[in-house]
Design a protein that fits this description.
Elements: H1 11-38, H2 42-52, H3 58-73, H4 80-102, H5 112-127
């Protein structure tokens, strides 16, 4: 059944939020798999790369925590809005990281894809938990005019 962030009982919105939640969770799993299995040198090489690029050690720790939370909590729908909000600064940082190094376009590993991720995370916050969520986030309140 549809719950957690479906406005007016609109089942399509609930299922759309579910599909987005599944997509984001699977993408976080793919990124963790790349860091842990596919990247030569694994997680230590990735961590060292960020620190050697000038980022303080808390940045890779935060990035890793956001990806783990996204992978583990988004798919079952546990506090979806909060997890998406927690990951948004990471994507803004990733966009900045690639923008200053390679530019905007995806074809040159630029900021384009992290910006798409950022918008998808924002959409997840707006749409809510979606159908079949296990632990619901608080609904967004309407803005006062």
């Amino acid at each position: 059944m549809v719950s957690g962030g479906s406005v007016g009982g609109d089942a399509r919105r609930g299922y759309g939020a579910l599909l987005l939640r599944l997509l984001l969770g699977l993408l976080f799993i793919a990124h963790l798999y790349w860091k842990l299995v596919l990247l030569p040198g694994g997680l230590p090489a990735w961590w060292h790369g960020l620190v050697s690029a000038g980022y303080p050690p808390f940045v890779p720790a935060y990035v890793l925590s956001a990806e783990i939370l996204g992978a583990v909590l988004l798919i079952p729908g546990v506090l979806t809005r909060y997890v998406a909000a927690y990951a948004m600064p990471m994507m803004a940082g990733a966009a900045q990281f690639w923008l200053v190094r390679t530019g905007f376009y995806f074809t040159k590993s630029g900021a384009e894809m992290p910006l798409v991720w950022l918008v998808l995370l924002a959409l997840q916050i707006v749409l809510g938990d979606g159908a079949y969520a296990l632990v619901l986030s608080r609904p967004l309140r309407a803005a006062r005019v």
